[in-house]
Amino acid sequence: MTNKKVVYIDLDGVIVDLIGELNHELSTSTKVYEDPTDLIDDSETIFLNAKPIPHALESINELEKHYDVYILSTAPWHNIHSWSQKRIWVEKYLPSMYKKLILTHHKEQLIGDYLIDDRTKNGAGEFKGEHIHIFTDQFPTWQSVTDYLIPKN
Fold it and tell me: Can you tell me whether residue 31 is helix, strand or coil?
């Protein structure tokens, strides 16, 4: 057990550019979706093919030097492939963290110091530590998050 503070980082939209991959798959799909996000339930590759959000991986590597970091994600219930795809994605891009992936729809149940998330859904808004709401006015970039969590001495 470590004495480091615990940081949970959401995967989709925070580390993984899911919107970029969703737009790519929609542009190549022969199926028309009334709600484009329904593709997430149909796709067998969306999570595998998604690219990292710029600067996310570098920031996570830096945070790992100071904190006990876990990757946190909610997987769509109707896409059974997504659960394993997320694990494969983490092992590919963050190989030191693939055993630190937590899939849950109840982020409020986790005990930790910080949660970096782009939304308040699935319990993120009720997280008992500090919710760092990334890509908002207060934390518009990954750099703003690392500057906040790793103050320069």
Answer: coil
Residue 7 has pLDDT above 70, yes or no: yes
65, with CB counted inside 10 A (0-12, 13-18, 19+), is: exposed
Distance CA 116, CA 131 (A): 6
12 is known as an active-site residue: yes
* pTM as predicted: 0.87
Q: Fold for domain 6-149?
A: Rossmann fold (3.40.50)
Please choose, from the candidates 53, 43, 49, 42, the residue with its C-alpha nearest in 3D space to the C-alpha of residue 12.
Answer: 53
Domain regions of the chain by residue span = 6-149
For residue 84, which phi and psi values (nearest 5 degrees)?
-75, -35
Residue 10 appears among annotated catalytic residues: yes
pLDDT tens digits for range 117-150 = 987 776 677 788 899 999 999 999 999 999 999 9
CA distances from 29 to 12, 64, 79, 153 (A): 21, 38, 17, 50
